[in-house]
């Protein structure tokens, strides 16, 4: 692009009543005494955590004595993004899991095709995997063998090692809420010529390349597969896909690829970390079917230790909004073959050393004057800058009613993305208190550095 056609964007007390009913204080005192006894009778660590939990409740009650549960829920809701407000504030969400399908935004639209009276609820009880003849109770059996609309949950915390890539059938939801599910250390996930798929609340990491072979594919059909590079999640000719609240990291190729004509994809509330190539949108420079690709990237947390491709886009269109970028090495957003991208109300924090520029464009004399990269209401810290297309139109996502959502002021991005990843795996600064699922958690216990992840 000619230097004259470029420009850069840069960025460089309440009063509380302390009156608490005596009966409430006596109640807290009794509970506190109980947990002190627990400390002496069980492991010190468990007892200390329990005492810390009770102290947290007492602090909140002292500081907010006049807040009803309904008012507190409303305040908590204001700190959540629109997806999370849709279901997290319902204390009965476990009994109404399929409500989640009404909460998606962006190009995936509402995933209501994944819910109705014919929906089959399937629970994973077995961590084993047979890629050709999967057993009932395994993840592969639920994702590949059962025909119709399937909602998959997990009986308990699980570490699943797949023997071959898992091909997920159309109208399948993988819902890891409430448990800690890892898919790791071998093959990972693929959505191949499927539609209406939700992947929510799991961790996928340390995936490995796979040699060609055969696997049980969608609708119980044996499917030949070529070489697989080792992506965490790969979309191939897929449509209406929602990837939400997952943690992806440490894979030899990429973490999330949207390729070969895939369309109408929303990538939201995920935590991407410890990775060279993070997200690829568009198969290769010659695959022109990806011109129809439309992807929404919203409320995600990128970092720490991410190098590039957040995302890298070819041909198609991406709306990248309200994401938190915790540094990069080469670049954050890049691409080739004249894609269109609207970066809106994202927070970009440049690394202490290395490139401060957010964007990268592959050199191309043929397509160099067709770039449509625009930054609208983004924020830049630590010297970050964004090279935008000057004089061109700002591409709009043109969402329909079901896809549309309000892009929030960038000053709220830290709050909107603090629950990225599964509900037990927040990328949140330690030492802060977060009201969540009607409970109060101490962030020190949730920070991954303290959990050995």
TrEMBL record:
SMART domains in the record: Amb_all
Compartments (UniProt record): Secreted, Cell wall
Similarity section: Belongs to the polysaccharide lyase 1 family.
Domain of life: Eukaryota
MF terms in GO: metal ion binding; pectate lyase activity
Transmembrane segments annotated in the record for this chain: 20-38, 50-70
Pfam families reported for this sequence: Pectate_lyase_4
Catalytic activity, as annotated: Eliminative cleavage of (1->4)-alpha-D-galacturonan to give oligosaccharides with 4-deoxy-alpha-D-galact-4-enuronosyl groups at their non-reducing ends
Descriptive protein name: Pectate lyase
Domain Pectate lyase stretches: 157-354
Record pathway: Glycan metabolism; pectin degradation; 2-dehydro-3-deoxy-D-gluconate from pectin: step 2/5
Upper lineage: Eukaryota, Viridiplantae, Streptophyta, Embryophyta, Tracheophyta
Cofactor note: Binds 1 Ca(2+) ion. Required for its activity.
Keyword Translocase appears in the UniProt entry: no
Organism: Flemingia macrophylla
